[in-house]
Design brief:
single chain; Serine Threonine Protein Phosphatase 5, Tetratricopeptide repeat
Amino acid sequence: MLRPAAPPSPCRDAINRIVLDTELAKALIRAAARRVSDHQDELSRLDAVAGDGDHGLNMATAMTEATNRLQDSQVTTSAEVFRATGRAFHDAVGGAAGALFGSFFAAIAGQLKSAHSSPREALVAGMERGLARVLRIGRTEPGQKTMVDALAPAVDCARTALGEGSALAEVLQAAARAARQGAMSTVAMEPRAGRARYAADRSIGTEDPGACTVALIFEAWAEASANEE
């Protein structure tokens, strides 16, 4: 016997109504800033194994600068939120990390500005464009113990979740899980890119700080988007 269809879940309906508007974009960046700042010492400790030990400070500084720039009255769209974040990384952090993370956020901004699709689709497409930029600028690929080892699976899973019709919060949750797994996978890797490759023997057995930062950002985004239900 056919059973009547279950009524739609209010929670599910709420999730489906979430869109990437300006306020949510700001919430994502602020949540990421808090998460990175909370783990600043851990990130610097990981970086000190084979680097200068300032990665946590640099990331926290850039994210804090990004949140400060969000108070500018000219930041009125989601694209401008991500553009301001990208510029904060370029301006506040020297070296490769600033260029790589800055380019990732800038790519999302560009896609959000020019897209004719839904904000959810534009965000994922921007993440894909950002990954491509990171790969090109960093001259790296998955498996070399860099931020790419968290970013690539996060972007792939975000695209898969979007293709399955998942709402924005679910897309970001899938990305966060993949990013964390990717970051954890770097523990056993030998670095083959960046300064860490010169101290490869010391680096084996610890997470890559860049990959860990990526995981923290996506976890913050997943939590912030879920809180919008």
